[in-house]
Amino acid sequence: MILLLRAESQKPVRWKNGGGETAEIMVWPTGSGLDDFDWRLSRATVAASGPFSFFPGVDRTLAMLSGRGITLELPGMAPIRLTPDSAPLPFPGDLACNATLVAGVITDLNVMTRRERYQHTMTLYEGRGRRDWGASQGFAAIHAGFGPLRCHSEREHYELGTGDTLIIGLPAASSLEIETQTRWLGITLTPSKTV
């Protein structure tokens, strides 16, 4: 399974705490809601400071796509400032998290996995080259959050516009050749060992 999901096809979903909307890129299993997904990819516009939604049993990772940045406050940790140049930040979704905008609206990419079902990584990459997912099951994804991106597998060529996401059911394409000199986000979603 390989899906090219266009930015314009992403459906808006209210935040769990009602404080805003997110553009849902994909949820697995298909049709799952906020309380029963195995994993979920979404992009949000954050226009005001405030608390994050609470997701028991869920791990999440946040990456900034645009804006001046956001500062996150998590229990037992010093405040963490994220900008589009920062590495994605993983943190438990069942911790209280408060977000403060640095200077105006930001957009972010959010990956969430239900701990007992899936685990994930999200990495900020830049430039051309071959990327190997290093996993034989689960899913991989490329998010073109910073500009258009071209890539190819052994059999297919893909053109992603800004905001598009390529979802790969492993091992359909265990590696891809990135052709564009731009930043992008790579994600792996693999079943937890307890499954």
Overview features:
single chain, 195 residues, mainly beta, Jelly Rolls, 2 domains, six-stranded antiparallel sheet, five-stranded antiparallel sheet
Notes on the structure:
This protein has a 6-stranded antiparallel β-sheet, with no helix packed on it. The protein has a 5-stranded antiparallel β-sheet with strand order 1-17-14-19-12, with no helix packed on it. The protein has 195 residues and is mainly β. It folds into 2 domains: 10-114, Jelly Rolls; 118-191, Jelly Rolls, CATH 2.60.120.10. Helices cover 0% and strands 53% of the residues.
Summarize, please.
The protein is mostly beta strands.
Would you tell me the overall average pLDDT?
89
Q: Specify Rg, calculated over alpha carbons.
A: 16 Å
Low-pLDDT runs: none
Secondary structure tally: strands = 19
Name the shape in a single word. Answer: globular
Measure the end-to-end span. 21 Å
Write the layout of secondary structure elements.
Blueprint: E1 2-5, E2 11-14, E3 21-28, E4 39-46, E5 50-51, E6 58-66, E7 70-73, E8 80-82, E9 89-92, E10 98-101, E11 106-114, E12 118-126, E13 129-132, E14 139-143, E15 149-152, E16 157-160, E17 165-169, E18 175-178, E19 183-191
Antiparallel strand pairs: 1-17, 2-3, 3-4, 4-11, 5-10, 6-9, 6-11, 7-8, 7-10, 12-19, 13-18, 14-17, 14-19, 15-16, 15-18
